[in-house]
Every structure is written in C-alpha cells, then in structure tokens.
User: Fold this.
Amino acid sequence: MNLPQGEREFEALLDYLKHERGCDLSGYKRTTLERRLQHRMQEINVVSYQDYIQYLQNHSEELKTLLDTVFINVSSFFRDRDIWDYLASSIIPRIIASKELDEPIRVWSAGCALGQEVYSLAILLAEALGIESYLERVQFYATDVDEDAIKQARFATYNDREVMGLPRDLLDKYFEQTEQGYVFDRILRSKIVFGCHNLTQDAPMSQIDLLFCRNVLMYFDKEAQASILVRFHFALKNLGFLVLGKSETLINRRPTFNPISVEHHVYKKSLNLELKDYLSINPKLNQKQALDATTRQIHIWQTAYQTSPFAQLAIAPNGRLVVANERANALFKLTPNDLNRPFKELEPGKLVGSSISLKTLYGGRSPMTLKNIEWSAYKETKYLDIFITPVFDRERRLLGINLTFIDSG
Ligand SMILES: C[S@@+](CC[C@H](N)C(=O)[O-])C[C@H]1O[C@@H](n2cnc3c(N)ncnc32)[C@H](O)[C@@H]1O
Assistant:
C-alpha cells in the first residue's frame, strides 16, 4: 500500500518500537498517539519520525519518557463521584447479597495508574463489609502496564492536593498522615496484589466479581478494545460487573456486554457468547480478517486458560481428562500422558471423589462448589475450594465439566 511519507515513517517508528524495543503500541488510537509523539518531538526539536527513531537509539532514557507521554497516569480519589455513589448503593450490595457470608469477593482494577482508584474501591468495600470481613474476603488485583505507576500505587502515599477528593472522615479513618504525605492503611493494603500487566497481551485474571477498567479503553482502537473485552468477558464471573470510565461506552458493542446502568457506565457480561458474536464484535472485518480475528480470539482464550493463576482442568462426559492448564499440571503433577486417562484414577479425581461421588459430578446440571477440601499429598496438606462447572452446547447437551481449584489457605 502506498502510504504518504509521514504515515510510512510513523509506521516505521511503531515497527521499531515493537521489534527492537519490545514495546507494542499498535493497538492505541493513531490520532492520539501521533498527537502525543508530535508533542514530545517538539519538546526536543526533532522534526520527523525518522529522526525520532535515531534520537531513541542515541538516548537510552528517551523510551521511558516516550512511554510516560503515552501512558497517561492521571487519576484521582472517587473520580466522578456519582458513579461511586451508585456502586456503593446498588452494585456492591448486590455482589455481597449474591454470596455466602464467608465467600471471597474478587476485584480487579485494570489500568489502576497511581492507585487512587484502587484505594477508593478498597474504602468502599471496607465500608460495606466492615474491616474484619474485608480482610477475610476481599481478593484485590491492581494492575497497570506502567511499572513506575505500579510502584507509586504500591507506595500509597499522596500529597494534600491529591487527597482533596476524599471526604474528611474517610481520610482520617483510612490514611495515616506522615512527613511524606497521607499513607493508605497498611493492613487494608496488604489484601491488594499489585502487578505489571498489559491488557492487550497478558492473560486476564479469572473469577472476578467486580472489574474496574476506567479511562483506559478510550486510548485503544476498536480492534484492540474488542480483544480486551473478550479478555474481560473471560475474567468476569457470570454475575460479575464491569465498570468503565465516564466517557467510555459499550452501547454499540453488544453482545459482549450489556449495560446495567448506562448513566453510570456499569455493565454485565452477556452470556452464551458464540463464535459469530466474536465475529460481529467488529463488523468492519472482512471474512479473511474475521477468521484471523477468530483465530486470535481462540488463541487468547487458550492462553488465558493455560496461564490462569488457578489450576483448571476439564473432563469429558466419558470421565476422561481432556485438558489441564499449567497450574493444574504443576499442582497435581500431571503430564501429557495423563490426557485421556480416566479422571478417577488421577490425583485430582481422587481428591474430588473423596467429597462427592463421581455420579454426582457427572450428573449435576448446575455449577457446584466444594469448600475447603483437605488434600494431603506430596508431603503437605492444603485446603482447596473446588468450583465445578458443567459446560453445555446450545442444545444443553453436556460437553464436559470444568474444574477450578483455588487454594483456600
Ligand atoms: C488515565 S489512567 C486511568 C486511571 C484510573 N483507572 C482512573 O480512571 O482514574 C490510564 C491508565 O491506563 C494504563 N494503560 C495504558 N495502556 C495500558 C495497557 N496496555 N495495559 C494496562 N494498562 C494500560 C496507563 O498506564 C494509565 O495508568
């Protein structure tokens, strides 16, 4: 394709960043990227993208500055207050009501920047559950692609200006005033797992009840957004909620997610997603691209399953092991030779068989949870929660059973 020179040079710059510097910016909206790059180039008096590549080669610290320009870490406590009020009055009570009193509540703030969103949500959960129950039940992941942002988020220290959005009583209750600034409560913070995570490349979390991804999707082009949404679909429990930023909307993106409240940008996932739904995520795709997109989506699902932080495996209706992910292989010392073997003969099969009959396992039509199952093997004792999910085709014929094993400690 004959692109104008400026565009060719821009593509060459993206190629250079991706292949030589390991930094893939291809999913970000072009117009925004170009604007930011131009701004940076003006600051250092570089005129063309070609010269900028040279500048990057000659100045080792420039890549970091460039990424700071692209990853905008702007955030604030209780940003867009009405949305937080809605979450506190409608969504969090729904999540709590849908669970047993001791069941975990799993939360993910994706693109958490400097942590203000994370701690706002931690406060909301602590207020709703009480501190004791928060500490027992909340499992909180906070991720961002920007390592420096994650470091600062972990540091949890904010100056006078940054805490301005916080009501005084919450500031006094949840922060300690130190010489460096206001520091978020250390004990509540201990429940939050911070990590570097790229939404367009890394496997998503799983079994999430509440997923925050605010003011992040808007930086991506349609295709990258669609691929991130598939990951979010995978990450969320069936009854989980997705919260987006104030200027982000998914109205045209059905059927991946349906709005719970358009006004407050809260969504739930639509169930029974099919291949054609994935294809329809981006109607502009032609057949060939659509196939590529499908292959990619399937690859994402497989990768997400394989690299999930939880041990997962699936058994066929004939009682044989069909698939086990990396965590399950490690936990139960399974090898490729175990595929297609009768599940009941394998270590996880014996473990499940110690709590329920295999007849119940294969006969159940609804998901089941086995709580706190003691498992002594390989010289140690663990306690596991086992989530059993039958998988059906469209005619409700059983395709298999998925089992997820989570250490309940
Ligand atoms: C404007 S901030 C949003 C902060 C917070 N969610 C809020 O709404 O206040 C956008 C964040 O998205 C992060 N981000 C950008 N690209 C990302 C990616 N590919 N994966 C994960 N996070 C990304 C940036 O580093 C930045 O911290």
Remarks:
- The CA atoms of residues 208 and 236 lie 5 Å apart.
- Residues 5-70 form a domain with the Chemotaxis Receptor Methyltransferase Cher; domain 1 fold (CATH 1.10.155).
